[in-house]
Specification:
- It is built from 21 helices and 26 strands.
- By secondary structure, the protein is of the alpha/beta class.
- The strands form four sheets. Strands 14, 18, 19, 20, 21, 23, 24, 25 and 26 form a nine-stranded mixed β-sheet that branches. Strands 10, 11, 12, 13, 15, 16, 17 and 22 form an eight-stranded mixed β-sheet that branches. Strands 2-4-3-7-8-9 form a six-stranded mixed β-sheet, with helices on both faces.
- The radius of gyration is 27 Å and the shape is globular.
Length: 684
Amino acid sequence: MSTDKWYQEKELSWLSFNERVLQEAMDKSVPLIERVRFLGIFSNNQDEFFKVRVSDVKRQVMIDADQGKTNGAASLLRNIQQKVVRLANTFDEVYKELIVTLARQNIFLLNENQLTPEQEAWVKRYFDNEVRAYLSPIILRAEIDPVRFLKDEYTYLCVGMIKGEERHYALVEIPTDVLPRFVVLPPGKSRRKKSILITDNVIRLCLNELFAGFFEYDDIHAYSFKMTRDAEYDLSDQLDQSLLEKMSDGLKQRLTALPVRFVHDREMPPEMVQTLVRKLRIQGHDAVMSGSRYHNFKDFIGFPNVGRKHLVNRPLPALKSREFKDSPSSFDAIRRRDILLYFPYHSFSHVTEFVRQASFDPAVLSIKMNVYRVASLSRIMYSLLDAANNGKKVTVVIELRARFDEAANIEWAKILTEAGVTVEFGVPSLKVHSKLCLVTRREGEQLVQYAHVGTGNFNEKTANIYTDFSLLTANPEITGEVAAVFDFIRQPYRRAKFNQLLVSPINSRRGLYGLIDAEIANARQGLPASITLKLNNLVDKGLINRLYGASQAGVRIDLIVRGMCSLVPGVSGVSDNIRAISIVDRYLEHPRVMVFHNNGQPRVYISSADWMTRNLDFRVEVATPILDPVLRQRIIDILEIQLNDTTKARLIDAEQTNRYVDRGNRRKIRSQTAIYDYLKALEG
């Protein structure tokens, strides 16, 4: 087998991950409304994929063309487009099936031609009272450049008005930023029947009300489309410097903000398609795709449940940590012993309460925190403002380059600065992606530090749907090094030494190589050797090659990889001892965890970093060892539950088949439910 078969293209691997999301929409054991919402998650993921991944491949295609290369990126782009089309066709089939299934539950997603006279009259009143004020059509005259103002987060209707041989086209933005995408119609005679109309169809029904009096036409019709722009501003996040250096300024300018995908209603007339392609300056490598009547399916993430409770997931109430429940304050609990939280099984309120108490506790002198993404109405950020108002020394490192959260973070930076918080923007060449908080407290004659080291953001909203670990500790071996990370961010030219933490870009790569090599050495001595990794993405070739070497030395390796996995398991003579699975379920699997057998004295780490080149070499990331043996075993137990999942686990293989793990004679285990039960028993 040639070495190029040892690595899966990360873009194709990512599409396989999103196919697993689509499988959830196809899974009849998933509650019906949740299946519809998975269509929204799939669509949202595809949008981001085109903004970032496809844009990057397009740039390489253009560079290759300039240099006379014909394969490479161009071949990859063709493979991406083929897979995208196949997934889009599957998506349409699933959507049609779900519409029928919803109807069987007396939930009807109607279009404008399916309304009763009473419903039509109600919708026209709704349009007049609620919708019309937000619509400002753009008439596509010759001098109008829609690329300048169209948003890639929105669906548009292209309205065609025909009178004889004369045609006028207009663009109407669906105003989902101010109006709901789904309009629940009043019940009719049968109160069991629930009818829902998408806002797009409200506008379609009322085109005459919108355009009559301004245009003369014999026929008026509307078809939906959306475009996805190149997220070129985030090129630095990919940190392929050789690629950046190859790109001329002129090439960058040509690509900036241009659409990379144009998706239109397959019923849209050819002349309308051609007009939009020309006006949007769609290039040869762009994906022009026909699709269903509706776009921006990401809004389906919020599809309302107007039916019975069993149509959505049964709630799993967030657990309260016993350590915090039994202590008068967060600091008393953490001082007694290290605390490990696992969200959303545990309540994120423990973290917000830790920061809230620090904001007014007279003994607290200072608070330091990294901020990457936070909720729009963040209790944590408001607590930091309160801390500043209480005279605490508050330092917040805000990452202004957090993809798609730049504007929100800039606004928070202004608010914090005005309140007297010291706001820092990290290292110019490195994104700060670590999840750290450090509180310094005067206790008697001593200064005691309390640290949070996590795998996920300080975000109350995502903590309800992302699984993530947080370690809260007063162990000076950890807290002292957390303080050193903040010093490094402020003064990166002064290199700190870390004995416990793995800190990118200082010692993460070297430390991970050393941990893998130790397992290789044990295997060669005939000692037990194994590695278990849980990651979002595994694409760094240096680490993949190290894992291949470990496999060849006889180290057993188990991988749980949610998203991109360039490593190919089960290659004879290369990765025979590597098994990889992916779990997609009601919660988004997000933590990064590493377990090294270490001859029966396991070394366990939780980390903010995926195994990607950018995370190891070009970001500030932190992995902490779990020093408490009870907590170490807890993480090992949780990973063991996931490795034995027989319900939601899919095999990662060379063919990217996304086959479910064969249950055989084993009992049915759904790991996310089993983990909840495991933690509930612990917390009593």
